[in-house]
Here is the input.
Amino acid sequence: MGKTLTDMLKNNISLFWDVESASLDPEKHKRYIIPRVMDYGTLENVKATFAFYGKQTILEVLRESPYLDKKTISFFAFYCDIAPEEFRSYRKRSSFKTWK
Here is the structure.
């Protein structure tokens, strides 16, 4: 049987290396937890996150996340049949101009 989100938060030092993971509250900190799991988590982590939050909540959080890996954006755009431009992170990255 897979781990629950609470178990994952308590026991995943490598995924939440920069905070005390046991102190994370799944509802209060979902805008931190969801993007981190989707960018860096294992399949088991992703499954636990989907089981806890559901597809709709995850998509809402990811759409507004300021920083997402390109692969995460591509996967969720395909999985949810939406344009990558619907992700804040994609729009932010696309608007960045390099110096010439």
